[in-house]
Specification:
Order of helices and strands: HHHHHEEHH
Oligomer: single chain
Structural class: mainly alpha
Number of strands: 2
Number of helices: 7
């Protein structure tokens, strides 16, 4: 039988995808311990809170979610009373998204879960959470740069066609 290739040894992005899934489960576990709903899109809610009021297009660019996925997830947050749509007076075809007081309260209540999950992870690794954060921010920024370059190249192709 042929030996199988060890992809995770060779590609950090594969390892990151799996690590993200496990980190999400660790965070969800802490949310449940606090009596909070782990199905809430805490990361997306935090982005809306941090950058809001924000248009759906701005949120799509900031989150990197495909528009259909983002629309479904935002709708769930709206139905849960955590996010609201605000009319855009400058462009009536658009609207803004922002957290509601209930969304702000949920985020405040969820932060101890994030802290507990990070503490548990920090106790099991040799790298500080600050170092992970620094590396992840740089990785996110590099990915955003690559995607922006792709979008600019596509615009140039479209304009020259």
């Amino acid at each position: 039988m042929a030996k199988r290739r060890q992809y995770f040894k060779d590609y950090v992005l594969l390892e990151l995808a799996v690590a993200n899934a496990f980190a999400s489960q660790a965070f969800d576990r802490e949310l449940v311990r606090l009596g909070l709903n782990p199905a809430t899109q805490v990361g997306l809610l935090a982005l809306i809170h941090q950058d809001g009021p924000i248009t759906p297009t701005g949120l799509e660019q900031r989150s990197a979610f495909p528009s259909t996925t983002l629309r479904e997830r935002v709708q769930g947050l709206i139905e849960a009373g955590l996010v609201e749509r605000i009319p855009n007076e400058a462009d009536r075809r658009s609207h803004f998204l922002d957290t509601t007081p209930a969304g702000d309260d949920f985020l405040r209540a969820a932060m101890p879960a994030a802290r507990a999950a990070e503490q548990a992870l920090g106790e099991r690794t040799e790298t500080s959470m600050d170092e992970y954060r620094r590396l992840l921010v740089r990785l996110r920024e590099a990915c955003q740069e690559i995607l922006a370059e792709d979008a600019a190249a596509e615009l140039r192709r479209t304009a020259s066609a």
